[in-house]
């Protein structure tokens, strides 16, 4: 599956397969992560897992998975395909041969460009996923649209109530259309600024260590790394990336889950300051457990 020496389609196919696998395996953990980052009702990771299972059964961990399964697979395909082909284009431009081994600067540029592209595709996907994952969280009654039951009444001051059976969205497409209707196109990119702060350094600190580790784990300079070495390099690089990306990911998740009117967070800086003032430095540490 190759159209030229510089552009290859098999990288996109490999990214798609990896995307399917990552969603199926990782979505339950991602649900727990999102609830911890944006929710207030959980003491720790174990308490969050037990609460979800008790209230929503095992299916609660897979809430909102259909949309990521359909979209993140495409997202992963584009991200990994774009990164690999960008590497080859840079090598061809700088060295005259797309097969030339990329240096550290080339890898960094390709990674940063990949992070930027990922936001344009991933921000709406993340937003819908998080809104669906947060469906059973406590909501403020004053922010519910009661136009169908109460006419000409605004600014109703009511206490916060938990409505575990209330569903704001019937599914991914309803969520997507609701956001477009109420918040416009810019609403789909709420939290995109924090996502840029997460993905540009995040992908750089993933792809660069991954390439370095793969080279270090090769038996010799002429052979390819063993599949086990590739898995190990990917796991270690992923850990490095997420440790550094978690603070921005917390901010992104909280801004995307914020459906209150008026908004709880006015922007990235306000979200950071508010989270730090109310929870201290542990706001980021608890989501790494």
Overview of the structural elements:
The protein is an all-alpha fold. The chain is built from nine helices and two strands; from the N terminus they run H-H-H-H-E-E-H-H-H-H-H. A two-stranded antiparallel sheet has the order 1-2. Helix 1 crosses helix 3. The radius of gyration is 21 Å and the shape is globular. The chain starts with 9 loop residues before the first helix and ends with a helix. About 9% of the residues have low confidence.
Secondary structure: elements and pairs:
Layout: H1 10-38, H2 45-56, H3 66-95, H4 104-133, E1 139-140, E2 160-161, H5 172-183, H6 192-216, H7 227-257, H8 268-279, H9 282-285
Antiparallel strand pairs: 1-2
Helix pairs in contact: 1-2, 1-3, 3-4, 4-6, 6-7, 7-8
Oligomeric status of the shown chains?
single chain
| Strand arrangement, major sheet | 1-2
Task: Calculate the terminal CA-CA distance, rounded to whole Å.
Answer: 41 Å
Main sheet overview: 2 strands, antiparallel
**What is the β-strand count?**
2
Structural class: mainly alpha
Q: What percentage of residues falls in helices of 4 or more residues?
A: 55-70%
What is the H/E string? HHHHEEHHHHH
Can you tell me the residue ranges where pLDDT is under 50 for at least 5 consecutive residues?
138-164
Strand composition percent? under 5%
Mean pLDDT: 81
């Amino acid at each position: 599956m190759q159209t030229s020496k510089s552009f290859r389609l098999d990288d996109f196919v490999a990214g798609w397969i990896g995307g399917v696998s990552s969603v199926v395996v990782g979505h339950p953990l991602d649900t727990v992560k999102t609830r911890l980052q944006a929710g207030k009702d959980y003491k720790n990771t174990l308490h969050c897992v037990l609460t979800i299972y008790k209230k929503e059964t095992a299916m609660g961990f897979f809430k909102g998975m259909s949309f990521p399964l359909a979209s993140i697979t495409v997202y992963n395909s584009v991200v990994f395909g774009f990164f690999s082909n960008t590497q080859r284009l840079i090598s061809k431009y700088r060295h005259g041969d797309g097969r030339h081994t990329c240096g550290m600067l080339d890898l960094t540029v390709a990674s940063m460009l990949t992070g930027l592209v990922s936001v344009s595709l991933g921000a709406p996907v993340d937003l819908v996923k998080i809104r669906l994952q947060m469906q059973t969280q406590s909501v403020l009654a004053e922010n519910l649209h009661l136009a169908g039951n109460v006419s000409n009444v605004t600014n109703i001051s009511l206490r916060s109530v938990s409505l575990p059976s209330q569903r704001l969205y019937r599914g991914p497409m309803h969520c997507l259309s609701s956001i477009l209707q109420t918040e416009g196109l810019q609403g789909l990119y709420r939290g995109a600024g924090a996502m840029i702060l997460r993905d540009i350094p995040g992908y750089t600190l993933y792809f660069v260590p991954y390439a370095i580790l793969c080279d270090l784990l090769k038996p010799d300079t002429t052979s390819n790394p063993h599949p086990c070495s590739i898995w190990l390099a990917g796991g270690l690089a992923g850990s490095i990336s997420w440790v550094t990306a978690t603070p921005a990911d917390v901010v992104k998740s909280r801004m995307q889950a914020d459906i209150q009117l008026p908004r709880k967070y006015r922007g990235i800086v306000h979200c950071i300051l508010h989270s730090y003032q109310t929870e201290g430095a542990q706001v980021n540490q608890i989501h790494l457990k």
